[in-house]
Design goal:
- The chain has 2 helices and no strands.
- The longest helix has 27 residues.
- The mean pLDDT is 81.
- It has 59 residues and is mainly alpha-helical.
- The radius of gyration is 25 Å and the shape is elongated.
- The chain has a domain of 29 residues.
């Protein structure tokens, strides 16, 4: 009797958690956030030689 009740409670809790996580995902993470001109900004940052070593070189 105890094992059956415990198993049922665990399954119910897992289903509730799954429902909550799914609703959070659909509410807050509905679309990926892609920055405007993202790849050009990354390329500019990586290829910029002005600030090549702002800390003064390797230690």
């Amino acid at each position: 009797m105890f094992k059956s009740s415990l198993r049922r409670d665990v399954v119910i809790i897992l289903l509730v958690k799954l429902a909550i996580l799914t609703s959070i995902k659909t509410i807050w993470f509905d679309a990926p956030s892609i920055p405007e001109n993202g790849s050009a900004r990354v390329a500019e940052h990586l290829l910029d030689k002005r600030d090549a070593n702002p800390e003064g070189g390797p230690r």
